[in-house]
């Protein structure tokens, strides 16, 4: 399997950091925009899309700030995905920082997927 490459994206979101955190860190919040359904048992999250399931494990979580997960299939690899809330100290603009990994040929597709999902998140939040 080809090595995956790390990429990062930033999305400005017009919502309070505490509200945004609920949507990136809880099964009910993630079910609103990230997957059709999300279940969690402890640090194990099951994401369901069109009847197929993917399992991710919570690596780290900092309340109100970030959540980092690793897909079960990447368990022995250094790959993960992270959603981090960043607030500009001067403008108070809220951004959602995404860190993910993809094979070189799949980076553009991965970015488009995130753009679509974040667009859904913004709709749910009423943030355009």
Automatic annotation (TrEMBL):
Family annotation (Pfam families): START_2
All copies of domain START-like, residue ranges: 1-126
Name of the protein in question: START-like domain-containing protein
């Amino acid at each position: 399997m080809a090595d995956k490459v790390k990429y990062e994206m930033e999305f400005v979101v017009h919502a309070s950091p505490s509200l945004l955190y609920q949507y990136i860190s809880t099964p009910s919040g993630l079910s609103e925009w990230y997957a059709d359904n999300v279940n969690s048992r402890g640090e194990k999250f099951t994401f369901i899309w069109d009847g197929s399931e993917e399992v991710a494990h919570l690596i780290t979580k900092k309340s109100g700030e970030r959540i980092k997960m690793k897909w079960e299939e990447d368990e022995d690899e250094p790959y993960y995905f992270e959603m981090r809330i960043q607030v500009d100290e001067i403008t108070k603009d809220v951004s959602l920082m995404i860190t993910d990994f993809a094979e070189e040929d799949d980076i553009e597709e991965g970015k488009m997927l995130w753009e679509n999902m974040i667009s859904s998140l913004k709709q749910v939040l009423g943030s355009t």
